[in-house]
Amino acid sequence: MSDPYQKLAGVYDRFVEPVNRGVRRYVFRLFPPESGKRVLEVGCGTGTNLMFYRQKENVLCGLDLSPAMLKQARAKLENTAFLQQGDALHMPYRDGTFDVVLAMLTLHEMPERIREGVMAEMVRVTKKGGRLLVTDYRAGHLRFPRGWLYRLIILFFEIAAGREHFRNYRSFLRHKGLPELLRKQPVRIEREKIIAAGNLHILALRKG
User: For a FRET experiment, which of 42, 95, 157, 173 has its CA 20 to 30 Å from that of 109?
Assistant: First the structure.
């Protein structure tokens, strides 16, 4: 299978990371990293999010489908994280392995047919009483004019990522984003925040 990030991985942090940095600031303000936890990031990309958990002496794992992105993450995290190439629909972890599971701007990239299954897998590998921190695009009212300006910027990046990526993004919004994916899962919302003038939805969840 071809890697859609083969060409992008080497420059991802230079061009995309400045946009993600502001999102990450809100995410970790809502749900600050704690110490002594087993942490998994689904769709870990170049590993920047896991670096914040490394500072707190956690056991870190990352899963990503892209070999090119994992190569960047391994260079960044060295031997401080267990990074695996793998399919998030069939995660190579036992039930209840992790205290914290992250997915930041990841689920919208996936084909519609697997999203619900991936969400269920994320819940499965989270300990009872553990937390999930999920951030993704939001379907709903946008504040004018900033919300529409941000939406144009988002559209630029989503279109630039390729036809399939853009199709998945549109499908994600058409199906009402995160709330619909969580509807059948045994989790409750602890905290949430809508940012980027209505474009992004951050959820801190607790597994029941």
Answer: 95
